[in-house]
Amino acid sequence: MSQTATQTTRSYTPPEGVSARKISPRLDVHTGLPSTWCPGCGHGSVSQILCDLVTELDLAEQTILAVGVGCGSSIPAQMEVHSVLSPHGRASDTATGVSRMIPDKVVVQYSGDGDACGIGLAGLMHACNRRENFIVIIYNNNAYGMTGGQMGPTTTKEVPTTTFQGGRDEEVMGYPMDIIKTLAHFPGVVYAGRCALTSGVRYREASRMIRRAFEIHLAGVKGMKVIDCLGNCNVNWKGGGVTFTPESSNQFIEDNIMQYFQMGELTVPEGYPPIRVR
Amino acid sequence: MSEKPFAPQIGKPTMGAHAMGIGAMVAGLDYFAGYPITPQTELLEYVAEALPEHGGVFQQLGDEISSIMAVFGAAACGKRAMTASVGPGLTLMIDGLTHAAGAETPLVLGALTRAHVGVSGGLYPAQSDIRMLRGLGNGDYQLPLYAPSTVTETVQLTAEAFDVADLYSIPAIVCIDGKMANMIETLEPFEVPKRDLPDKNWTLDRPLSERRAVVGAARTPELDTMICYEIQQKLERMRAMETRYETYMCDDAEFVVVAYGIMGRIAKEAVRRAREEGIKVGLFRPITLFPFPESELGDLAANAREVLAVEINFGQVLTDVRLAVAGQCPVQFFGQPALAIPAGAVLEAIRQMAAGQKVEPRGFFDVHPTAFHLAHTHPPARRQMLDQLAAERGREDAQAMLDNVLGIRKNTVIPEIGR
User: Fold this and answer.
1) CB of B127 closer than 8 Å to CB of B311
2) Cα four-point dihedral sign A244, A250, A255, A256
3) Interface of A with B in 236-275 (CB under 8 A)
4) Looking at domain B245-364, which of 3.10.180.10, 3.40.367.20, 3.40.50.300, 3.40.50.920 is its CATH number?
5) Which of B39, B182, B261, B416 could lock onto B147 through a cystine, CB 3.0 to 4.6 A?
């Protein structure tokens, strides 16, 4: 994977207003490989935000991705940084071991909502409880995308999944989990917030929020920085024959999913001005 | 590597569970994560004290899965990392073990085994997890599995396991049973052979400009298939290079006893006593259960009249023994599900084998002669137990035995047999 990636690294144009001196000596952390994600999927947006951020802050040497299992595990194919893949739900534990052994690096856990809030919830909560020192980015698309759109712990009532085609059956499956609300109260969590990837404005909010998590981490504030990114799964929200386009799925998040989840920052360390979200 | 050099205290009475920790410290342990479970807690407590003193990190995580995955993360940074657990915890740890094997990441797992299926009631020592430690969850692979039989050997093999793990870039397991874990013996001088270890150029702590590290399953079918071949090549190399065993009085042996771990040392005593009686018997003790010393045992079996496998289980290494013997002579089995088999019982089995008889299996009342636990449990179980006891020893004998054992419950009424 990595060898092919090195060969195909493409040239990089820095974002406007960024000094060329600040660019990583590797010029571009994006591997230039074609993305394996579906068209319109927000995983591509998050990986773009991370690529830009890591390049801009010159963090390619410091960043280590700890990736769980799900669609998000393709991110090492997009980012030319050290990566470690763990089994489904164990990214928090692997990140614990990595960040304890090489504490001067920026360890970023990248997980889906099933990986972080389903099978890996215990590991993530214990990591927060232990005040581990790494960044967690959850791509929350309200479904198990890789396996074809089954219902997950964060799935809201209206999302048509293949296992609950008429939407989440609250009698049997209860209610969607707000992971940020859950984790924001842990003393070990220093930054917790939720963003979305449904529009250009939201994208900028998301990149500001992820950047803030990195800034807090680089400033030496010890503790967990958790960000939940709401995004679509326009291909696999298909229960009951419902079809979505990327645009309609993004609108669906705005109209339906957001009423269940509080947007914006819930926990911010002192001295950091709040990031305004719509 | 740890900051302060660690020196083991030779000549000090040392507990088996501590021995694993000492071995790890000798090897330069950097990271240990674990979750308490009997009888591993003594090891946990030992490492919790010793490791931070020498610059390492000790963590107690949420469960066994978290522990082994954090150890995997530390190992991915090129550090020497270890965890340890017992039966039910090992079951959980296999989740991470198969991943670490697929990711070709070196780490060490201490396996302390106890008896019973599911959650254990008695926490008795046994060797009942050997099959699990060789089966190891999903995927076609095996891991080096050491079964030391003394406290000193536990220290030495644990230290060596780190080198073997690094050399083959694969997890390694050191397995002792609950009896060994709680046993205290004098730590004898030992030596860990020096090996040429490969440079870990694939780890996360190296500079990115040198080489990009991607630790973990390859996630492309072709690379995953390639890793399967790589693992098999490693196993072949290990079979050639890492096989270990001990023989005792095997030169002219007509009968061979095969036993490992705690049973290895007990069987040695039984063999010694049998030799005094004039029975030409020897002991073959596999030190590595994988790779199993197959051809060596096969050579012994070629000149033997019979082979007896002794285990604290119902024959989990027996399959390997049979494959090694390959029909050259009959193989008998002698085992029980829990608690170490006394040397006297092994001697009796050797006598039976030497007399050309079938070795009598150990039954429930051989393991629990009075079974007083059952007498306190619910009535149907108690009645069944009494029926059985009375049928074996006569009703009066059973009555006397229970009167003796159940001193605290004098008014226990023994029901009529067969009622």
Assistant:
1) yes
2) positive
3) none
4) 3.40.50.920
5) B261
* Cα B259 → chain centroid: 12
Q: Where is B112: in which H helix or E strand? A: strand B108-113
pLDDT tens across B190-212, in order? 999 999 999 999 999 999 888 88
Instruction: Give me the pLDDT at residue A20, please.
Output: 45
Other C-beta atoms closer than 10 Å to the C-beta of B188 total: 14
| SS3 at position B174 | strand
How far separated are the first and last CA of chain B, in Å rounded? Answer: 69
Q: Do the Cβ atoms of A100 and B76 come closer than 8 Å? A: no
A101 → chain B, closest CA residue: B74
CB pairs under 8 A between A and B: 137
Q: Which residues are paired to B310 by β-bridges?
A: B334
Q: Which of these, B121, B133, B182, B142, lies nearest to B337 by C-alpha position?
A: B121
Nearest C-alpha of chain B: how many angstroms from A130? Answer: 9
pLDDT at B401 over 70: no
For residue B353, pLDDT beyond 60: yes
User: Is the distance from CB of B111 to CB of B139 less than 8 angstroms?
Assistant: no
- On whether any CB of chain B is under 8 Å from the CB of A130, the answer is yes
Distance CA B285, CA B247 (A): 6
Is there a contact between B99 and A86 if contact means CB atoms under 8 Å apart? yes
> Cα dihedral sign for A23, A25, A28, A30?
negative
DSSP code of residue B342: P
Q: Which residues of B touch A (CB under 8 A)?
A: 30-31, 33, 57, 59, 61-63, 65-67, 69-77, 79, 81, 95-96, 99, 103, 204-205, 207-209, 211-220, 223
B-chain CB neighbours of A26 within 8 Å are 208-209
How does DSSP classify residue A144?
B
User: Which phi and psi (to 5°) does residue A88 adopt?
Assistant: -60, 120
- Would you say A72 and A110 are in contact if contact means Cβ atoms under 8 Å apart? yes
pLDDT in tens, B36-80: 998 999 999 999 999 999 999 999 999 999 999 999 999 999 999
CB A80 within 8 A of CB A5: yes
Task: Select from A228, A225, A219 the least CA-distant residue to A253.
Answer: A228
- At B93, which amino acid appears? M
Domain with A253 in it: 2-267
Token duo for residue B272: 């010694």
Rounded Cα gap, residues B364 and B409, in angstroms: 23
User: What tokens appear for A173 in the block?
Assistant: 């499956």
The residues, ordered by sequence, that sit 6+ positions from B272 with a Cβ below 8 Å of its Cβ are: B249
Q: Which CATH superfamily is domain B13-241 in?
A: Thiamin diphosphate (ThDP)-binding fold, Pyr/PP domains (3.40.50.970)
